[in-house]
Amino acid sequence: MESTGNWSTSAGWLPGVSAVSYGGDYNPEQWPEELWPEDVELMRQAGVNLVSIGIFSWAMIEPRPGEYDFGWMDRLFELLHAAGIRISLGTPTASPPAWFFHEHPEARVVTRDGTTLGFGSRGMASPSSPAYRRASTSIATALAKRYGSHPALAVWHVHNEYGAPVSECYSDESVRAFREWLRDRYTSLDALNGAWGTAFWGQRYVEWEHVSAPAVSASVVNPAQRLDFARFTSDALLQCFIAERDAIRTECPGVPITTNFMAGTCESVDLWKWADEVDLVANDHYLVAEDERSQVGLALSADLTRSIARGRPWLLMEHSTSSVNWQPRNLAKRSGELTRNALSHFGRGADGVMFFQWRASRSGAEKFHSAMLPHAGTRSRVWSEVCSLGGDLGRLAEVLGSEVTADAAILWDWESFWAQDLEWRPSKDLSHRERVNAFYERLWQDQIVVDFAHPEADLSSYRLVVAPASYLLTQSAADNLRRYVEGGGTLVVSYFSAIVDEHDAVHPGGFVAPLRDVLGLTVEEFLPLRAGEKVRLSFDGIVGDVWTDDVALQGAEVVAAYEDGPAAGKPAITRHRLGNGSAWYLSTRLTVDDLSVVLDKAYVDAGIVAGDGPEDLELVRRRGSQADYLIAVNHGTRPVDLPVGGVDLLSGQAGESLKVEAGGARVIRIDKPTD
Question: How far apart are CA 259 and CA 640, in angstroms?
Fold first, then answer.
């Protein structure tokens, strides 16, 4: 990723930062000022060197329109600076103050069913509101003028979690902005009508003023219109970020600017586009507490974030020390889990590890959310683990800037996901995320490090590419996949892929038409299954559910056929040689375990060797100029011997073989041979 700013890295990846960044959101405005020195002293004890401030402080900084009170923040800056703690300065635009909505009620978010959202939460301003854009850039400018040259400032943190808790807005302001976005995209109404297929159900438009947002209607709304509204929403939010970023950069050109993504959890923004507009990529991630294998979801989010960052190190802006407060059942993390989570992110490219938040809140909606300094105080287990993690990260400075390389990639396309998730699909059991998760977990268990990639991106560096859910596949993307396979790559495609184009229209020639020559087959008809129905395949006793296809071969070989069900006797799994590579097709849903039957063979085609360690052992290698670093995290209940020679940076232990205790972790430096 090329930087869009004027800053450059020095010893570390943030200007002036030469250690792994460690800290969290600090909200001292919630506490008496006489408590602040105690906070800072405890931060020093814990090894904190970076905190985010100001994220929800708009009403404190600008209590009335154009009236600023910087006194408290001035004192906070000096207190942190004196302690050697750097600052990630937030713009507080995710939570406009009460006076803003009193003066600009038209800036409130309107939901798809016409409900106007009220004040008292966060993220409730319409991204298309001109008044909101003016107010947000105004306070960003004021903050940049005030603190842009302060030596404690390390990074700008614009807004907070764009797209959450709401993204789409159906207000009058949004409708007007949507029309302008459509004019820019299509130029003419004829082009719009063609793209949206408005001949269906008599939806043709003859005046731009007649085009509206796809609000709730009597039946299913035009899916192409809804897909474009999703694109517009992502772009509208991005324009809000760009407006604040540019306002800051005018006053403060030398400090990197970012915002906190939610890669893998918030699907309303296309982060492939966003990544080109930030100076460094930052991400928030929270475990799904009830998921017994939540470490896999964590790894997926981290790998996706690194991929969005184009392989460069990134910043974990938020995660939790223990439980969160907004899931149905907020399970506490077990002993050691805090460290395992942090080192998993670190191993997958995060050069900074931060939490929400520093001190647990006594009031408000998140008072039951865990923190670095919990309600139980400094005698608690969580506090002890926070301090221990700070010490561990302090030993890892030499790993900064090293990178993760992957032999395999999973295709990830937000636009395809938006389209697939619309109404009236062939089965309610179709889930793009379920398939992505299943393939990812299979690769994770096989200890194969994965990148995520857009279908139109350069895939030539990967031996294996998996397309678990490419429902929307452009002709350009299909051509890209053809070149990849012809050039020697191994492609694995799952069912309900390559069905529609960028307008959610079925491809000319029918299902999988753009990949027909690549896969060596066509799909004549979808044959979805009843709830709970299973089908047997003629290969190693594996069983499918949810879906089958009526596949007609056009050059592919049959690896497995259906033994029963609506596609009995038809191909279920196929392989097709094309050029120097091969393409596999799976026309039914397989479990994570059964996917190994197929992927083990695809690994052979790709020249990939799966790991042979326990499935609960997470191994990731970061590559540096002088040494490689193997991050080993044992999520299991038994110790594991690693036949790897090197030095564990956490303990200082060296040897030709190192043991990873149950629930423990190692960061092993493996020196490269010298000439």
Answer: 38
Q: pLDDT at residue 447 above 90? A: yes
DSSP 190-215: HHHHHHHTTTGGG---SSGGG-----
> Is residue 589 one of the residues assigned to a domain?
yes
76: left (phi over 0), alpha (psi -120 to 50) or beta: alpha
Q: Is residue 318 within 8 Å of residue 25, measured between CB atoms?
A: yes
State pLDDT tens for residues 132-145: 999 999 999 999 99
> pLDDT band at residue 675, thresholds of 50, 70 and 90?
low
Nearest to 667 by CA among 440, 334, 397, 401: 397
What CATH number did the domain enclosing 644 receive? 2.60.40.1180
pLDDT in tens, 170-220: 999 999 999 999 999 999 999 999 999 999 999 999 999 999 999 999 999
The amino acid that residue 205 corresponds to is Y
Long-range CB contact pairs, 9-15, < 8 A, 24+: 9/401, 12/351, 12/400, 12/401, 13/280, 13/313, 13/351, 13/400, 13/401, 14/86, 14/154, 14/155, 14/256, 14/280, 14/352, 15/154, 15/254, 15/255, 15/256
Other C-beta atoms lying within 10 Å of the C-beta of residue 637: 8
Check whether residue 628 and residue 573 sit in a common domain.
Answer: no
- The CA-based angle 525-539-575, given to 5 degrees, is 60
Average pLDDT over residues 621-649: 96
277 has catalytic annotation = no
Nearest to 427 by CA among 343, 346, 529: 529
* 540/497 same-domain check: yes
Question: Do 156 and 252 contact (CB within 8 A), yes or no?
Answer: yes
Mark whether 468 and 600 lie in a shared domain: yes
Q: Which residues pair with 620 in a beta bridge?
A: 631
Within 13 Å and on the Cβ side, how many CA atoms surround 378? 8
**Residue 515 near residue 550 (C-beta atoms within 8 A):** no
The yes-or-no verdict on residue 9 having pLDDT over 60 is no
Do the domain assignments include residue 521?
Answer: yes
- Helix locations, 104-129, DSSP H: none
DSSP 238-275: HHHHHHHHHHHHHH-TTS-EE-EE-TTT--SS-HHHHG
| Residue range of the domain that includes 526 | 408-606
Determine contact, residues 660/637, Cβ cutoff 8 Å.
Answer: no
Shared-domain flag, residues 559 and 628: no
- Of the residues 161, 415, 441, 618, only one is catalytic, namely 161
Residues 585 and 630 in one domain: no
**Residue 450 and residue 533 in one domain:** yes
Bridge partners (DSSP) listed for residue 475: none
3 state DSSP class of 623 = strand
Which position among 318, 337, 415, 441 bears the catalytic label?
318
Tokens of 380: 């608690």
- State in Å, rounded, how far the first CA of the chain is from the last one: 31
Cα 371–372–377 angle (5° rounding)?
A: 90
- 177 versus 8: the higher-pLDDT residue is 177
Q: Is residue 32 part of a domain?
A: no
The domain total for the chain is 2
Is 70 exceeded by the pLDDT of residue 2? no
Separation CA 97–CA 461 (nearest Å): 49
Predicted confidence (pLDDT) at residue 13 exceeds the cutoff of 90: no
Annotation marks residue 38 as catalytic: no
pLDDT at 127 over 60: yes
Q: Are strands 350-355 and 21-25 parallel, antiparallel or unpaired?
A: parallel
